[in-house]
Design a protein that fits this description.
The chain is 36% helix and 23% strand. By secondary structure, it is α/β, with parallel strands linked by helices. Strands 3-2-4-1-10-9-11-14 form an eight-stranded antiparallel beta sheet, covered by helices on one side. A hairpin with a 2-residue loop joins strand 2 and strand 3. Helix 1 packs antiparallel against helix 2, helix 7 runs antiparallel to helix 14 and helix 15 crosses helix 19. The radius of gyration is 26 Å and the shape is globular. The termini are close together. The chain binds 6-O-phosphono-alpha-D-glucopyranose.
């Protein structure tokens, strides 16, 4: 949600800021800007829409300066127009502020500032910040920012420049990520995430909530709101540059779909003891503190009597698959909660409950809030996270990384399959100490897990077949997705993929629930995607009955079925076959054709699949 970049140094400021914004565009693309201090004046290019447009404007009128900031906006307060685009200014246009987050008490602050003679031009919450800084400015920008931020309630990642102190950027963080990239010779790049930094330096410092940094050619200094100096280490970012390029694919989403045989391998790597049928999760060896005791996270987990998993979006769907697996394989009661709901619910922690939070980005505001709340209640919180060094990865007691590499396409694909893999490993891991599976049984599942990457590769060869199906159906306006058991969350995920990138209304439903509502909608204009793989005989037969019910109402069935199931050709209008695997592993295979189907339908409808309207990859606001 909004990308922030800032640069202090002698290189071409336009190139650094625009390139950084291109990398951050996945965070929001309602409007964007580049702002540079030139001759003690603030100069800005702003535009509604994409970075490409800004790039064209900036190439015609490039800035020359050594201090600048760039912003890409995902609108929260105020429509996407040039006035609401960041930066926002004070009355004299001496202070420019770019912001990621939400200022919750902006209305009160705005009224107070108006009563002190300030005038406002935008509808944004952000605009109160430059005015507050102006109100408190007495010759030192940092002091004025510290004063202003003490009055602010809400979340922010901020970058602030001021013509009165033209050689510096002040950045501050509370709830929205900010990273300092430190180049040699006191040259700095600050950004919302490392992808915008790594072209120039790999040395970074992650700001924590409540911290403010000043960067200038004289060096950098980090303090808190009380102006106490904070010493921080620099760390090396290991992100791979090739990971954040399209690599010949037309879209990041397609590239990421095709990476899945590799990313699944990466999630499995080093975690399986194949011969003995054991699972190792190194991240859970970390020492955690529970009350006054220190112990390994895995020891605590092995004694746990209940698991709560909290997440948002696609990560929440992965968590739902995890619920089935943890209960079936590790026999541990598991509940899955939307983070946005759980953060405001009454939390009833007990000493034998462990919470997992799942997040691709590691920055989702609601998930982070649940994590903080659970920790305040004394709970142990473990993470399943993709982005190394992200806020959620840092604040959890311990956790397991996905190692899926950067995911740029707004619609999550490879993160989902890696999350399901990690949850499968976790279930098998817990089954070891709890003796809920025989060694033989676990070994068989591990053997099947090892076949998954090549099976995924095989499914990806069916792209043309799936494209032909997309061709037949891309003009329909409503879709229903049905699945049962462990594939019910896959139906939800398939529907989410379609709706988020193609803007077709799509609903996922447990197949048997169809008769309690959605069946009323079925006619020849409602394609029904049914996951009908051989999960187990009983469920399969029930799903076949649901297919018959749809056929009886002239609905078109697109079935995902197991290779060799010829019966399905007679039942469904279209069949996409996937290789046979164990029931609990079917979600990982079944979701791949659904990702491809959504992708091709969206492309055929002319949609921008990597940057669907109104959505953002990393939702750092409530
Ligand atoms: C946004 C993204 C989704 C993602 C969700 C949760 O809505 O567009 O793709 O699933 O946030 O994000 P997280 O990074 O926490 O997994």
């Amino acid at each position: 949600m909004c990308g922030i970049i800032g640069y202090v140094g002698k290189r071409n400021i336009n190139e650094i800021i625009i390139k950084g914004l291109e990398r951050l565009e996945y965070r929001g693309y309602d409007s964007c800007s580049i702002t540079v201090i030139e001759n003690k004046q603030i100069n800005v290019h702003k535009t509604v829409g994409r970075i490409q447009k800004l790039k064209e404007i900036a190439s015609k009128q490039p800035f020359k300066g050594s201090v600048g900031i760039g912003h890409t906006r995902w609108a929260t307060h105020g429509v996407p127009n040039e006035i609401n685009a960041h930066p926002q200014f004070d009355c004299k246009k001496q202070i420019a502020v770019i912001h990621n987050g939400i200022i919750e008490n902006y209305h009160t602050l705005r009224q107070w500032l108006i009563s002190h003679g300030h005038t406002f031009v935008s509808q944004t919450d952000t605009e109160v910040i430059p005015h507050l800084i102006e109100q408190y400015y007495q010759g030192d920008l940092l002091t004025a920012v510290q004063h202003a931020l003490k009055l602010i309630e809400g979340t922010y990642g901020l970058a602030i420049i001021c013509t009165l102190e033209p050689d510096k950027i002040v950045v501050a963080r509370n709830g929205s990520p900010l990273i300092l990239g430190i180049c040699p010779d006191n040259e700095y790049i600050v950004a919302s995430d490392a992808s915008a930094i790594i072209d120039w330096t790999r040395k970074v410092t992650y700001l924590a909530d409540g911290e403010i940094a000043v960067v200038s050619p004289q060096g950098h200094r980090i303090t808190n709101l009380a102006n106490e100096k904070i010493e921080k280490n620099t760390e090396d970012v290991l992100l791979d540059l090739a990971q954040i390029e399209k690599g010949g694919y037309p879209h990041f989403m397609l590239k990421e779909i095709f990476e899945q045989s590799e990313t699944i391998n990466d999630a499995l790597r080093g975690r399986l003891g194949v011969e003995h049928g054991i699972v190792r999760l190194g991240g859970l060896k970390a020492q955690i503190t529970v009350g006054s005791k220190h112990m390994k996270a895995s020891d605590f987990l092995n004694e746990a009597e209940r698991i709560i998993i909290s997440a948002c979006g696609t990560s929440w769907h992965a968590a739902l698959v995890g619920e089935y697996l943890l209960e079936a394989l590790a026999k541990i009661p598991t509940e899955v909660e939307y983070a946005s709901e759980l953060r405001y619910r009454t939390m009833l922690p007990d000493a034998k409950t462990v919470m997992f939070v799942i997040s691709q980005s590691g920055e989702t505001a609601d998930t982070l809030a649940v994590l903080k709340k659970a920790k305040e209640h004394g709970m142990v919180v473990l993470g399943i996270v993709n982005v190394v060094g992200s806020s959620i990865a840092r604040e959890t007691d311990a956790g397991v990384y996905l190692h899926a590499g950067s995911e740029i396409g707004v619609a999550s694909t490879k993160a989902f399959t890696s999350q399901v893999i990690v949850l499968t490993l976790l279930s098998l891991f817990l089954s070891q100490k709890r003796h809920t599976l025989s060694d033989q049984n676990r070994k068989e599942i591990i053997d099947s897990l090892q076949e998954i990457p090549s099976q995924v590769k095989h499914i990806l060869t069916k792209q043309d077949e799936i494209k032909q199906i997309a061709q037949k159906y891309f003009q329909f306006n409503n879709f229903l997705y049905l699945g049962r058991g462990v594939n019910f969350p896959v139906a939800l995920e398939g529907a989410l993929k379609l709706k988020e990138i193609s803007y077709i209304h799509a609903e996922g439903y447990p197949a048997a629930e169809m008769k309690h509502g959605p069946i009323a909608l079925i006619d020849k204009n409602m394609p029904v995607v049914v996951i009908a793989t051989d999960t187990d005989d009983l469920i399969y037969q029930k799903v076949v009955s649901n297919i018959e019910e749809v056929r009886a109402r002239s609905g078109n069935i697109i079935a995902i079925a197991t290779e060799g199931n010829d019966q399905m050709k007679k039942l469904a209008s279209e069949v996409i076959y996937v290789p046979k695997t164990r029931g609990y592993l079917t979600p990982i295979l079944n979701v791949i054709p659904l990702q491809l189907l959504a992708y091709h339908i969206a492309v055929m409808r002319g949609c921008d699949v990597d940057k669907p309207r109104n959505l953002a990859k990393s939702v750092t606001v409530e």
